[in-house]
Amino acid sequence: MMEKGALLSVLAAEVEQGKLVFPTSANTAMNIKRKLEDPDCSIDSVTRLIQAEPLLSTKVVAVANSAVFNHSGRRITDVRLAITLLGMRTVRNLATAIVVWQFSGSQSNSALVSQLWKHSAYVAALAQVIARRITHQDPDTAMFAGMIHEISWFYLLAREKYYPGLVDGTMANSWIDDEDSEDNSEIECEIKIGTAILNALSVPEPVKEGIICLWEGYLAFPPNTLGDTLLFADQLAPVKSPFTFLSSQTDDDIIGNIDVLADQETLSAILKDSENEVKSLTEALCG
User: Fold this and answer.
1) Which of 18, 44, 49, 130 is deepest in the core (most CB within 10 A)?
2) Are residues 247 and 230 in contact, defined by beta-carbon separation less than 8 angstroms?
3) Percent of the chain with pLDDT over 90
4) Which segment of 23-32, 86-95, 106-115, 236-245 scores lowest on mean pLDDT?
5) How much is the pTM?
6) Where are the domains of the chain?
7) CATH superfamily ID and name for 4-17+107-286
8) What does the alpha-carbon distance between residue 189 and residue 13 come to, in Å, rounded to a whole number?
């Protein structure tokens, strides 16, 4: 089996050369994403496109029914109405998230995929709240960035069959507990892989910068950027990623500092007030 550093170097070189290999399901979702980005695509065309992709249509309707977007409480069952409520930007963001989540394809590590998916959903929901209540970033952009921040790991899961042992129990633990963690070359490879995929999906530059900030693990004070928003959300997510990038700050450090910087409101009060929104949106994204 290849050593982790060598394995990451090979994969980083592969993606930097444009050799991105996506499963069929992800390619289908990417085609839909491209069509949705056509400014001349009518609401009828958008509706038909989404209805043709069961996973995307399910997510669109579920998110439209979440407490974050559906303030009326009336149950939405129609895709067209869900699109109208969410708006095209959010629908396009959901389409991109589906592409990312389908990278892992039908590989056997379903437990890892499930955990990664749930973690991403929690980060997305928490980022939406934190952006609105603490860092004053655009909430929809923060939600989108949260949905796709684990993009490199979804892709690496998809590549496991070509690189046996990439994400088995021993290797998965080694991403976190690494005696050679002072060597930043592995982190740099991981960032190269993720950045190349973000570029391939035409993810907007501000979103890409925010996600890279999360990967690098540096939280600025006072927190006022998309990267800070994602770092907060990542630390607060009750379901952790099975993989992680190094961070010089502990959960307690970050959470304690949020309380100091949350203007009159403590973090616990903000999260308590937003508990239903976070739960509802997480369930919509996971369901």
Assistant:
1) 130
2) no
3) 39
4) 106-115
5) 0.84
6) 4-17+107-286, 24-102
7) Hypothetical protein af1432 (1.10.3210.10)
8) 9
Among 167, 126, 168, which residue's Cα sits nearest to residue 147?
A: 126
